[in-house]
Amino acid sequence: MGYLAVFLILLSISCAASTFVEKSFRECMFTRVGGYSKSTENIVLSSSSSQYPQVLESLEQNPRWLNSSTKPLLIIRPFHESEIQAAILCSKKFGLQIRVRSGGHDYEGLSYLCKVPFIMVDLINIRSIEINVADETAWVQAGATLGELYYKISKSSKVHGFPAGICPSVGIGGHISGGGFGTMLRKHGLAADHVIDAYLIDVNGRILDRKSMGEDVFWAIRGGSATSFGVILAWKIKLVQVPPIVTVFSIHRTLEEGATKLIHKWQYIADKLHEDLFNRIVAQNSGANSKTIQASFVSLFLGGIDKLIPIMNESFPELGLQAKDCTEMSWIQSVLYFAGYNKGDPLEALLNRITTFKSSFKAKSDFVKESIPEIGLEGVWKMLLKEQTLALVIMEPFGGRMNEISESEIPFPHRKGNLYNMQYMVKWEVNGIEDSNRHLQWMQMLYTYMTPYVSKSPRASYYNYRDLDLGSNKHDNTSYSEASVWGMKYFKGNFHRLAQIKTKFDPQNFFNNEQSIPLLNSLPF
C-alpha cells in the first residue's frame, strides 16, 4: 500500500473520530444545560460551521497564529454560566483540553492554540458590567474589555476610574489574571491590586466566590495565572477616584535632537516623580530603511497644567515642557488619548473589540533596576535601525504606589527596586515562515544584548507579556523544577506558593497550558 493511501486512511479515521467527539460533546452539553440553554447550534461551533472561521479569527489579535494547524475542535460561545460549567465537565469526560478567550490578546496565542485536542471557550457573550458608585465597586464579567469597563464607569461617574491597561480591546479576564498595569500604576498600583472578590468555576464545575474558594486561591488568581486554577467568570473590583481634570502631553525627540541624553536622564527621575505623574517612553524606528530613532515621552498627570509645569521644570527641565505642549481633559478622554484616538473621537470608540490594524508580532519584557548607560542605549538604537520592519521599545516607569506594596501581597512580585519595565516589540506584515523566523531571530539578538543591563537572578519578565522562549511546559507532566525555569522569571518567590495552591486545588492538573502553574509533586518522565 502506498504512502498516500495510508495517509488518506489515517486522515479518514481521524476525521471520523473528530466527528464522533463533536457529536458526543454536543449531546453532553445538551444533556447538562438543555433545559435552560439556547440552541446548541448557536453555542457549540464545529470546524464545519460557517461561523467557525470568522469567530476564530475575529479576536485573534496576533495574525502570526492564523496559519496554525492547532485549531480548536469546537468553539463554545456561552451565554450563561451553566454552559461554561457544562463545557468543563464535558471536556473532562472526553479528555479534551480547554482554552479560554476573553479578549484574544495572549501574546503567544495560548487562548486559541493547543498541541492536543481542545475546545475554546469564547467569553464574548459573558461581559456584563455592574457599577455601584455608592460603594465605589463594580462587578465585571471576564469577557468584558478594558474599553467597555472604562466606558461604563464614565457613564456612571465623572470622578471615578480604574487602574488597568492602555489597550481598550484587551479582555478583563486575562488582564487581571496576570496583574494588569497602565497609566495610573504609580498612583494606584495594578488592576489586580483592586480585586476584592471573584467568581471562579473550578474543575468540578462549581462556581466559587472569594469565601468558598478560600484566601489561598483568591490570592493566586490575582496576577498568578487564573487559567491555571479554573475559568474566571467575573471580578469584583474597587474603583479609584480621579480628578475632574487631568493633563496629557506627548513630546517627540529624535537621536539628532538629543533623545539618548533625555532617556538617560529620565531613568534617574521617572520612578521618583510625584505619584500623580506617569511618563512613559516609546522609542521606535520608522520601519524599513530607518535613518533615526524617535523617542516619544507620553504622559498622564492627575491634575491641571498649572500644577504639572512646576513639577516638570524642577525634576526634568531638560525635556523643555511648556504649557502649549499640554492638553487638559477628563480622565476618560485620556483613556482615548493613550489608545491612539483623537480628542474629538466619541467615547463609543472604546467599545470596539476588534483591533483595526493587526500585524504579526513578537514581544519580550524586562525589568530594569539600575539605569542603563548611554552607550548601552546607543546599542539598542543600532539594533532597532538594523531591523527592516517596525521595531520599538516601551519603557513604563514604576515607583510611587508600586514601591509600597509587598512583593508577596499578590503573585505579581515586581515592586520596590524596579525603576521601570521594558517591553520590546517587532511587527511585520508578511506572515511567511522565513520572514517570521528572521524577525524572531532579531528579537532574540536584542534580548541577548540587553542581558547586562536588566534584572538578574532571576532575569524577570511580566506574565501578561507572555514569552514562550523563556520555557514551556510539556503536556501534563512538567515537573516543578522544570517549570521554575520560566516561573521564577514571572513570579519570583511567589512561584512556589502558586504551585502549592495549584496542587491542592487542581490535583489532576486539568487546567494546564504551556505556561500554567505546575503541580508541586509532579515528576518528569
Describe how the helices and strands are arranged:
Blueprint (H helix, E strand, L loop, with lengths): L2 H31 L6 H4 E3 L5 H7 L15 E3 L4 H14 L2 E5 L16 E5 L6 E4 L4 E5 L4 H11 L3 E2 L10 H6 L7 H4 L6 E7 L5 E2 L1 H4 L1 H7 L9 E8 L1 E2 L4 E9 L4 H11 L7 E8 L9 E8 L3 H11 L10 E4 L1 H8 L21 E9 L5 H13 L4 E7 L22 E9 L4 H17 L30 H12 L2 H12 L20
Parallel strand pairs: 2-4, 3-4
Antiparallel strand pairs: 1-2, 5-6, 6-10, 7-11, 8-9, 8-10, 12-14, 12-15, 13-14, 13-17, 16-18, 17-18
Helix pairs in contact: 1-4, 15-16
Describe what this molecule looks like in 3D.
- 46% of the residues are buried.
- Strands 15-12-14-13-17-18-16 form a 7-stranded antiparallel β-sheet.
- Helix 1 crosses helix 4 (81-94) and helix 15 (480-491) crosses helix 16.
- It has 525 residues and is of the alpha+beta class.
- A hairpin with a 4-residue loop joins strand 5 (129-132) and strand 6 (137-141).
- The two termini are 36 Å apart.
- Helices cover 33% and strands 19% of the residues.
- The chain is built from 16 helices and 18 strands.
